[in-house]
Design a protein that fits this description.
The chain is of the alpha+beta class. The chain has helices spanning 8-11, 53-66, 84-88, and strands at residues 2-3, 17-24, 43-49, 69-72, 96-101. It has a 5-stranded mixed sheet with strand order 1-3-2-5-4.
Length: 105
């Protein structure tokens, strides 16, 4: 389920839910992406229950790929669908991944 962004306090309300953010980004002007300053398009959130963490995120990332969007971290490193959950939840990524235009499949 994708939702509009929530506040930090709302994010921590439920300890059984992890919220992964997908920030759409256009252009290649900077070497590092910042979710608060450099985004174009939507900021989507995916609420993931602890019982099914990686498969739902993987399925969503594969859907983005079919739509011509690649998933990367803030350093613009492309992340495979199977690794997106673990990369997003690294503390420095703050549950946020970026969507950039890729090659349509």
């Amino acid at each position: 389920m994708l939702r509009e962004p929530r506040t930090q306090s709302q994010d921590t309300e439920s300890r059984n839910i992890i919220i992964i953010r997908f920030v759409e980004h256009k252009g290649n002007k900077s070497k590092m992406l910042n979710p608060l300053q450099e985004y174009a398009g939507k900021v989507l959130e995916m609420r993931v229950d602890h019982s099914d963490l990686t498969s739902r995120v993987k399925d969503k990332v594969q859907e983005f790929l079919r739509d011509g969007k690649r998933t990367c971290d803030k350093y613009k490193k492309i992340i495979s669908a199977k690794d997106c959950y673990s990369m997003a939840t690294i503390e420095e990524n703050k549950n946020t991944l970026f969507l950039i235009l890729g090659i349509k499949s």
